[in-house]
Amino acid sequence: MSGFSDRIAKIRELIDERGLDSIVLRRNPNLAWAIAGRAHVPTTIDAACFDLIITTTSVVAITNVIEAPRLVAEEFPEGIEVKTIDWWQGRDGLLPTGSKVGSDQPGADRIDVGLEIEILRASLVDEDVDRFKTICSDAAIALGNALKQVETTDREIDVAGLITHALWQSDLEISFLGVAGNERALKFRHPLPTDAVVGNRVSASICAKRKGLIASVTRIVTFGPVSESMLQDYESIVRVEAAMLDATIVGSPFSDPINAAISAYPANGFASDEWTHHHQGGPTGYLPRDWPAHSATTRVIAHNQPIAWNPTGKGFKVEDTILASTSGIQIVSVDPDWPQLEIAGRIRPALLQR
Description:
This protein is α+β, with helices and mostly antiparallel strands. The protein folds into 2 domains: 3-122, Creatine Amidinohydrolase, Chain A, domain 1 (3-Layer(aba) Sandwich); 126-353, Creatinase/methionine aminopeptidase superfamily (Creatine Amidinohydrolase), CATH 3.90.230.10. The protein is 32% helix and 26% strand. The chain is built from 9 helices and 18 strands. The protein has helices at residues 3-18, 28-35, 68-75, 114-122, 126-147, 156-169, 182-185, 228-246, 255-267; strands at residues 22-27, 47-54, 59-64, 81-85, 101-103, 111-112, 173-181, 201-210, 213-222, 281-283, 305-309, 312-313, 316-317, 320-325, 328-331, 340-343, 346-349, 352-353. Helix 5 crosses helix 6 (156-169).
């Protein structure tokens, strides 16, 4: 089966399990997953440019006359029937309602199956695994290439421009872009770029998207001499990440890696409450994070589930995207040309010293 058929088959199994006639998908991440394509026009709102009605025998998209030609030509896989409305009309009137209809968006007397849909898309089908690995690799390489062009006199917004250019050249949209120079890296965990000059260090984090799937990557560049204490601080945060990666096991709860981090922070020279100052990451794929995992999370890690951990401390952050599977985890946002270090038997990104 194609990836589209695999994903629709999952939804049809849910229809049968819940005794429904149909399921209506309305949310951007779920629609992007279903079609392996772009479901948005503006990137700033959750509303998609079409709705999808799935039954046991059909898949119907409801969209307007503006979007239909592009969606059919560039986004929709074969097997979707398209119904159009005028651009000034709403789509709600063409969507089924009632207690035999499920939806990922509450309302209109439909049964809320949003959580079930999120769980379905948490485990990538084979076609999407291959696509995801390519996206993550391309994102890491694009970010690395951009950061190799940065100068100490650049402003954070100049760095953001370099990264944006590199990502779009690699056919990657931006879901999140954080840039911090030397001063702001020590102050803020989510540093949106400003006109501050970067100075002798710059940290950049991206969530880069192609056809719905998102890669999360952080890289750090230093300029001039690097002190031994700086190297030790960075390696210490990578050791916290190592504890999280060791605890990332399919079938185990997401709380396990978080609790591993909580123990690893003080064991590696950080304050015991360091983990409270920033979320540590969680499941990803079609959102930068579906939700941040915490010490009481009971949801279990699924086979072929994308995850991005991002421990931070002392002005440093380490972040890559991994794929958890029954055969172990694989770090998929790899740039072979970025400097490396080995921690706990894994090759991890080092500081790029210039």
